[in-house]
Write a structure and sequence with these properties.
Length: 145
């Protein structure tokens, strides 16, 4: 059985070094998912990093530093290519607003890209229909004959 990491979810978990955040981190890693584990101190995550070298990205973050929050999220996306699940285990309201806004922006960018791809596919499909003649009788019922 092949373990294809591209098909696994990517978690971004704040407060990941202890308590509920650590529990979420361990559960996601055991499920085979990838985790960006964010905390003020990441020493508690060292043992996990030894076990989950390819799937765990521990990042140190002071959540009161707005610029650091943005650069941490950007580093996470650069490392794993995307974020699928955000667990804001931090009790910091400004962080909730920043993360919520960033996740919304990322989701909207993804949606816009998919819509553009669909529109391109639709245009190609319509042009193909014009260029390829339909089989004889295609779309014509007996009543129309």
């Amino acid at each position: 059985m092949t373990n294809n990491l591209e098909n696994k979810r990517v978690w971004f978990i704040t407060g990941a070094s202890k308590g509920l955040g650590y529990t979420f981190t361990c559960a996601a890693l055991k499920a085979g998912d990838r985790v960006v584990a964010v905390a003020r101190t990441i020493d508690n995550l060292a043992k996990l990093k030894d076990t989950y070298q390819e799937t765990l990205l521990p990042l140190n973050l002071d959540i009161t530093d707005r610029d650091a929050v943005f650069s941490t999220v950007e580093a996470a996306i650069e490392h794993f290519g995307r974020l699928d699940i955000v667990v804001n285990n931090s009790d910091n309201s400004p962080l909730r607003l920043i993360l919520g806004s960033m996740v919304y922006d990322i989701a909207m960018d993804t949606l816009k890209a998919r819509m553009a791809t669909w529109k391109e596919w639709e245009a190609v499909s319509r042009e193909s229909e014009k260029a390829i003649p339909a089989p004889e009788g295609y779309g014509i019922t007996e009543e129309q004959n």
